[in-house]
């Protein structure tokens, strides 16, 4: 169990000095522990990366760690209220799907119950987050279980009897500025092109060829979105999934993640359970956490993390210091990019590059409630704006059969925007967004429709706990660069959806990555010296291929 040591309130001594004393005693303790970890085995995978003989890891001896701690104390100065020191084997930073999955693997499967889970929010779930709107609860974050079958999220959803509706993407109506339209020809053409797009990615992968952008991939198979109808059809199948346009997304990895997720099953279900999608991590947590369990620290912001090969110290906004043998950070790649949490020592360049290179995309679900339903029965509507791609393009009818109860108070439409439109909308008032939306809706459904009774516009980029909605693999990023995201630094491990090569961006990616991190840390705790070599190669330097392409002269 996590041990909580309550220190006396420091009335006279300056807080920074107390912090210092606490660290000196902690470092003395740590220095007496023989390190259970060796240097990671620096793996080399793939022709374009090279290991260095002396990797620049934060493998400092305790005295250097102590210097870091002292610096941290001085930095913290009088802002630290030293409330308590909490000692634990594993600190899990973040109580989203990844954090709960890591904790479950440790506590439930490996019986390593001396853990502490910290999250800034007041509930577990992270980006599974439901809020009240128009008399019901709606999901601000993840909403679909994507790929059913053996998808662990779907398996857990069934165990928890989570209510969801089959997402019927064929149940769709098309609109442009003149009202209802027919884009079925464009839709069929895209479907054919997408099959060829996936086949081309498979060919590139089989021949170990360089990645190209998704846009180049589409062009290569003859798909050119040169009309508003084609643009919105492409948006519906690509941007609405990746949350970024084809120009900046990876052809290879968008195809790999599509294939991996549809391998569970091609079907998706939309969660409508009024207990929220977060029921899944809540049910998993109930297997190893009691009600009001003191190991779960909600409403607690992690401000600083000091890590080394000997342990990890986590400083919270409450002034507490969690002193752990290991820690798992599950913060989003957006949070790491914004440096919302300070890490000491600062990350080495290979890690920083991996963090900055990956993309945190944004997918914004705008909810509108009306006093009556003026739209038809299909689950989905597409709107092709004549001049602006991605301008309020995908609409969802939450009154469709099986969704929310249709009544006089709850008549909800959900419209999604992504990327640049998300950024733009976050910066303007909700009134301005509503006014834009009503112009679009009136061109779709006629001028007599009423204004909404309420509107809900999430702001994922502004939120310092997320800084976007989910990750996307940028064009040209290599497997090795991506592996550096996950690679541990000393006893600090990294998890979260972005670290999943097959399922980045997805709820199941977060769950599967969390389980891997939990498994790795469990092995470290159990077997010590070889744990770093487990599935976590890292590439401190990335080079161009030595093999020169062969120049072929036509004769
Ligand atoms: C709008 C949107 C739509 C999505 N749609 C889908 C979908 O339909 N299907 C699907 O499969 N996936 C979807 N996703 C993605 C899915 O939600 C994520 O992949 C998954 O929930 C990420 O889980 P995680 O544990 O990796 O990260 P998170 O859930 O982000 O967990 C990290 C935790 O860290 C906490 N944290 C951050 N900073 C601090 C700090 N300084 N101190 C303390 N705590 C901190 C956060 O509060 C958070 O709880 C969507 C996401 C969003 C946002």
Automatic annotation (TrEMBL):
FAD binds at residues 98, 302. One of its GO terms (molecular function) is oxidoreductase activity. Keywords: FAD, Flavoprotein, Oxidoreductase. InterPro entries: Amino_oxidase, FAD/NAD-bd_sf, Flavin_amine_oxidase, Flavin_monoamine_oxidase. This is Amine oxidase. Residues 97-519 form the Amine oxidase domain. SUPFAM superfamilies: FAD-linked reductases, C-terminal domain, FAD/NAD(P)-binding domain. Its cofactor is FAD. Belongs to the flavin monoamine oxidase family. The keyword Transmembrane does not apply. Its EC number is 1.4.3.-. Gene3D superfamilies: 3.90.660.10, FAD/NAD(P)-binding domain. It comes from Jimgerdemannia flammicorona. GO terms for biological process: polyamine catabolic process.
